[in-house]
Structures are given as C-alpha cells and as structure tokens.
Design goal:
The protein has helices at about 15-25, 55-60, 100-120, 135-150, 150-160, 165-175, 175-190, 200-210, 225-240, 280-290, 295-305, 345-355, 400-415, 435-440, 490-505, and strands at about 5-10, 30, 75, 85, 90-95, 210, 215, 245, 250-255, 260-265, 270, 275-280, 315-320, 335-340, 365, 380-390, 425-430, 460-465, 465, 475-480. Helix 3 packs across helix 8 (about 200-210) and helix 7 packs across helix 8. Helix content is about 35%, strand content about 15%. Bound molecules: flavin-adenine dinucleotide. Flavin-adenine dinucleotide binds near residues 9, 47, 280 and 480. InterPro entries: Amino_oxidase, FAD/NAD-bd_sf.
C-alpha cells in the first residue's frame, strides 16, 4: 500500500492547480479522477475570461503556451445589425451612436474600477468572523482607501450599486437595448437570477474581475482549445512530481477520531494520506464521501440547503458549412456571439425557469471553435458551441420529453440569426443540467458547484458552517468551484486551498 502526503479528489482544473501548488512545495501528491480524462467541466467551457495570472505564474506555466488573441463580443440583432465590443469588454465599441458609446464608456470605467476593488478578495482565503487575520484588516483598509482614492463620489456610488440589479444599472447608463441585453446576459450566465432580480449586478462584477492577456474583462480561446488549459495544468503538476490516476472514483473518505487517514475507491482499494483535498462538489464531499458520524446534523442540514441546481445547457453542433450570422463579418465569426436582444428578452427567458419550464426564445452565447482550430471540423464545415440559458434542472415535464422541444426552440432561434443553419447540421448534442450532473459528476450540473449569489459568497461559500477551505474533519479541505471565490476557469479555489493547506500543517 503506497501512501502520500496528500490526495486530491478530482482532476478538474482546480484539482490540478491544487496538486501543482502542493507538489511544488515538495509534497508527495496523488490525484484521483473518476472519469477517463482530466479537466472536468473545462470540457464544457468555450471561453477563457478569468484564468488567474497568479495561477499561471505560480505554476511556472509559459503564458505564451496558453495565449490567444483577444476575442470580440458580437451582440446579434438581425434587424438593427450587431453591436461589436473589442478589446477588454468593449474598450472599443462599434455599431452604436456616439452618445451611446459615451454612456457605455462611463459605465464600463465605473464597473471595472469597482470590480478591481473586489478582485483583491479573490486570490485569498475569505475572512472568518472571530478569526480575522492582520492581512484581512489590511485588505479591508486598502479596499476603503482604493475607493476613497477615486473620490468620495466613487465610494458612495459603490455602496449604492453593489447590491443592485443589473437592469437598473443598465437603464442608468445606456439606451441601446442590445448593450443592455448583453450586460443582463453576462451578469446572470450560470446563475439562477434574472436581470431584474435583486443583487444581479454581482454576477457582472464577478465576470469583470477576470482578465485575459492583461486586459480586464477580456476573453480568448487558447491555442489547442480549452483542453490546452487542462493539459498545461496537468503538465505543471506532473513536472513537480504529482501522480494522476484516471478511472479512479473515490467512494469514501477514511477518518479516525475526527482526522482523515485516506480514501477508498469504488474498486475497494484503500489509499492512505493524512491530507485530503477535495476538488469536487462540497456537498458530495461532506454528505456522501465523509463518514456520516463525522458531520454534525447542523452542518449536514446547512449543506442540504446549498442551492446548486444548474440553469445552463450546452449545445454542440457539427455543420457541413460555416454558418452566416446576419451582419457578422467572416473575421468576427471567430468571436463570442451573444443572443440577448434586451433586458426584457433575458428576463422573459428567465421567468419560465422559475416554474420549471423553458422559454421558447432562449438567450445564449455562441462560439465557432473550429474557426480557431480547423482540425475540429471536417473540411469546409464548422463546429458550433452554444451555452444556453435558462434550462431548469427540474423541468416540470421532465427532460426525456422536454429536451427535443428545447433543442427545437434553440434551433428556431439560431435559424432567425443565421438563416439556413438548421439544414447544415450533421450532428448535434444538447446537454441539460441533469446530463451535465451525470457526465461530469457535478451535483445539479451547476456552473459554480453552488449558486454564486450573495448568501453563498465569501465566508458563506459553500456555507457558513464550512468555508475558507476547512472542514470539521481535520486534514480534509475543499478546493473546487464550490469554494471561494467560485466557478469559471480561474484556478483560484485550487490555488487558495493549496496555500491554506501549506500554511496549516506539515503534511
Ligand atoms: C454548460 C457550462 C458551460 C461553461 N462554460 C464556461 C466557460 O465558457 N468559461 C468558464 O470560465 N467557465 C465555464 N463554465 C464553468 C466551469 O466549467 C466550472 O466552473 C469549472 O470547470 C469548475 O472546475 P472545478 O475544477 O472546480 O470542478 P470540475 O470541473 O467539476 O471538476 C471536478 C472533477 O472531479 C471529478 N470527480 C467528481 N467526483 C469524483 C469522485 N468521487 N472521485 C474522483 N473524482 C471525482 C469529476 O469527474 C471532475 O473531473 C461552464 C459551466 C457549465 C456547466
């Protein structure tokens, strides 16, 4: 029986990052992955907009190996023509009036400034009440200073705006429905909120804390596609000595008198380690894998109440020709295309989801990955990836009959924006949240492994009873998107958790 300093459960990108940082510190690390490939839900993603530079440099990954040109966002509108955002989240705007461009610039500047203030809290452990470290106080002080430095009005505006809904902010700065629709969509993607839901602006702040190529709010697709990120993280972890085993689902976490001792695989094999870093959903970790006697009733109940039902579906199409989206140039087809015509469009797509139904006119973002990597499609053809909101996890009629109807609704929308596209489809795959749950071992199929709403953030992530990567079981730590700061391809939960483990105990 081999033993390790630490076992990482899950080779999603956060598990690989945690493995890399721990192995770099000289620990003997084993990563156990249930499926037959690394990367987890990275394989669903199609845009990078928040991979942390601290993760890339901390693991000594050559940033050029992951670089890609900044991609524009094109907000589609077959009647008025598209709005195009270039640079980092619309540094340059095309397709709107000069007055609208000015309104956008003012709003963009303010939101990026506010997001930069919040960003300070992402790459570190969230503060714990009763356990506030000196560095937390310094951060809080610097946050206040950062705001005041920008002027008293900015501090006041931040206090006013932070918990508002994105629709009201859009109405304050913008008149163009296409731009309003875009920020309404971006603020709510992967979250069970509509643009008029209180606090929905937080989702947009979260997005704008991300960056690409040093550009806040930027986005790109790396050479080699999303898989290149997982592969770079794997190489980094292996370079530092970590071992990775695929097809090795963990069935149980072993513990003795409140301290972890190892894991048991589904096969019955036992592997020992004093430290377990669980980079899978926190609820699975604590309610399924940990011994029931180790988790008290209060914690078990609060975990049961973590909201984690996904809303995003993923459609992949193979097309026998490159689709023509009305008003979009061949060069811009390489960007992110967004179908969200207005705030009302996004809100009315959300409304049925509250009652277990989907809209006949869903909102979505689309990429054509084969235009950046032609090996992905047959010659002359294309692949299309769409992330479609809102696909309620608990569809009232059931997804067995609902899925073909939802696919038909999505294709109807696509046909309106890219006439002729339906006839060129040679294969399609639609994954709705229960499919994502099953294929990616993600309860609820949720983007963030748990709603990223104000009551499930910071010291309440995943829940107040377990946050800051610790658990009541000594030696067991949490490291997935379900921990602070949340989901998306950032690597931050994995990096923060690994640093916390290293600060805690000599493994
Ligand atoms: C439809 C959809 C589209 C998305 N698109 C984007 C996007 O374009 N850009 C973006 O930044 N983010 C996107 N996201 C979000 C992003 O994919 C996730 O937030 C992120 O991948 C989570 O990473 P993770 O490492 O924390 O967990 P995961 O990626 O879920 O990895 C967990 C790993 O653990 C494994 N595992 C689970 N249980 C066990 C077990 N018992 N034993 C061993 N292994 C186990 C799983 O198989 C998996 O490999 C999208 C999410 C969804 C649902």
């Amino acid at each position: 029986m081999t033993s390790f300093d630490a076992i990482i459960i899950g080779a999603g990108h956060n598990g690989l990052v945690a493995a890399g940082f721990l192995a770099k510190a000289g620990k003997k690390i084993l990563v156990l992955e249930a499926s037959d490939r690394i990367g987890g839900a990275i394989n669903l993603a199609h845009i990078v907009n928040r991979l942390s530079p601290a993760v890339v440099s901390g693991l000594a990954i050559d940033p050029n190996s992951l670089a890609g040109e900044l991609l524009p966002t094109i907000v589609l509108d077959p009647d008025k023509g598209p709005v195009i955002l270039r640079g980092g989240y619309g540094e340059i705007l095309e397709g709107v009036t000069a007055a609208e461009a000015q309104g956008w610039a003012g709003m963009r500047k303010k939101l990026l400034m506010q997001a930069a203030v919040l960003k300070r809290f992402l790459a570190k452990r969230p503060p714990r009440p009763g356990d506030i470290a000196f560095s937390d106080m310094v951060d809080l002080g610097l946050t206040g200073l950062g705001l005041i430095r920008n002027g008293r009005d900015e501090a006041r505006d931040f206090a006013r705006m932070a918990l508002m809904n994105v629709a009201d902010i859009a109405d304050e700065y913008l008149t163009d429905d296409r731009l309003k629709g875009l920020i309404a969509f971006d603020a709510t993607l992967g979250i069970h909120l509509g643009p008029r839901s209180p606090t929905s602006l937080l989702g947009l702040y979260y997005r704008l804390t991300g960056e690409a190529n040093g550009s806040p709010g930027g986005q790109f697709l790396p050479k080699g596609g999303m898989a290149a990120i997982a592969s770079a993280l794997e190489k980094a972890a292996v370079k530092y000595g970590a071992q990775i085993r695929l097809d090795a689902p963990v069935a149980r976490i072993l513990s003795e008198r409140g301290r972890t001792t190892g894991v048991v695989l589904n096969s019955g094999e036992e592997i020992l380690a004093p430290v377990i870093v669980s980079a899978i959903h926190p609820v699975t970790t604590l309610r399924k894998l940990a011994a029931p006697g180790e988790i008290d009733t209060h914690l078990s109940t609060s975990l049961k109440h973590v909201r984690t039902k996904g809303d995003a579906a993923k459609l992949t199409l193979t097309l026998d020709k490159i689709p023509a989206f009305t008003g979009v140039s061949a060069a811009d087809l390489k960007g992110r295309l967004v179908i969200a015509r207005s705030i009302a469009h996004v809100e009315s797509a959300f409304n049925p989801a509250k009652y277990g139904a989907f809209s006949p006119d869903p909102v979505m973002e689309i990429t054509l990955p084969s235009l950046l990597d032609p090996s992905l499609a047959p010659s002359g053809g294309a692949t299309l990836s769409a992330i479609v909101q809102y696909a309620p996890y608990d569809l009232r009629e059931g997804w067995a009959t609902g899925k073909p109807k939802f696919l038909a609704a999505i294709m109807d929308v696509l046909e309106r924006y890219a006439p002729g596209i339906s006839a060129s489809v040679t294969s399609s795959e639609l994954l709705v949240p229960p499919d994502i749950e099953a294929r990616y071992n993600m309860p609820g199929g949720h983007w963030h492994h748990g709603e990223l709403q104000v009551d499930q953030m910071l010291l309440n992530r995943p829940t107040f009873a377990v946050s800051g990567y610790d658990t009541p079981l000594a030696g067991l730590y949490l490291a997935s998107a379900g921990s602070h700061p949340g989901g998306g391809i950032s690597g931050l939960p994995g990096m923060n958790a690994a640093k916390h483990v290293l600060s805690r105990r000599p493994a």
